[in-house]
């Protein structure tokens, strides 16, 4: 049974037992500054049973922890309610206004949803539907390769079936989920380094991109550096070169 409001809980994942980087520490400080009165829950190997789902078990065995968190964030929101944030998400304004929603998320750009900041009441059917989808999925394909389909692609397709227009605009679906433009939760273009921060921005996803191959991360880094130095014209040239 779904509750009608989002509790003051912040969920985040840290699997692999590695040391937390400086970016996470910076982001955590912003949570502590702006999210007074929220309970913080870390999901890791001690608080979640890795063996409980085949997809998670295979992703963990492959040391692809970002894909483990794709499932665990949904598990946390469905069973506890609250707001999930990636560990590379910086909070710049209090999130209290979103607690009145049944569930919420936002766009990553003009066509796809983001999942770095998302919230839901306990037992919300939208989260339940996304969670159930993992029961029929495997991370390890029959040919031995990994299914690295991003959760943003899966969530976007699922929401489109419920009437979401993938146009980057504010929308409320019949299932009670509210979606915001990218300026609210994902105002940073990690591909080209552009900023869309406005007075409507509440979180900034810095996109550590730990799930991507090293050469792809390097390509994004080069684009960001070029954008800061000389702007979008060189970006276009680099895109052709890369």
UniProtKB/TrEMBL annotation:
Listed GO MF terms: transferase activity
Keywords for the protein's UniProt record, in alphabetical order: Transferase
Organism: Paenibacillus sepulcri
Protein name in the entry: Glycosyl transferase
Top-level division of the source organism's lineage: Bacteria
Cross-referenced Pfam families: Gly_transf_sug
């Amino acid at each position: 049974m779904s509750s009608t409001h989002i509790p003051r809980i912040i969920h985040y994942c840290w699997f692999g037992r590695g040391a937390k980087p400086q970016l996470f520490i910076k982001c955590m400080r912003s949570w502590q500054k702006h999210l007074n009165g929220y309970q913080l829950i870390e999901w890791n190997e001690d608080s979640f049973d890795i063996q409980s789902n085949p997809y998670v078990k295979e992703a963990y065995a492959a040391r692809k922890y970002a894909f483990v968190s794709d499932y665990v964030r949904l598990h946390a929101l469905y069973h506890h309610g609250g707001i999930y944030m990636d560990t590379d998400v910086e909070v710049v304004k209090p999130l209290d206004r979103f607690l009145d929603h049944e569930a919420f998320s936002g766009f990553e750009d003009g066509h796809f949803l983001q999942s770095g900041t998302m919230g839901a009441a306990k037992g919300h059917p939208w989260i339940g539907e996304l969670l159930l989808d993992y029961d029929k999925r495997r991370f390890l394909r029959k040919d031995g390769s990994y299914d690295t389909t991003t959760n943003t692609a899966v969530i976007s397709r699922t929401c489109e079936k419920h009437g979401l227009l993938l146009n980057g605009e504010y929308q409320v679906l019949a299932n009670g989920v509210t979606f915001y433009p990218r300026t609210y939760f994902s105002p940073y273009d990690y591909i080209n380094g552009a900023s869309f921060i406005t007075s409507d921005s509440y979180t900034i996803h810095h996109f550590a991109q730990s799930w991507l191959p090293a050469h792809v991360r390097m390509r994004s880094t080069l684009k960001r550096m070029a954008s800061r130095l000389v702007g979008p014209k060189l970006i276009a040239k680099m895109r052709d070169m890369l």
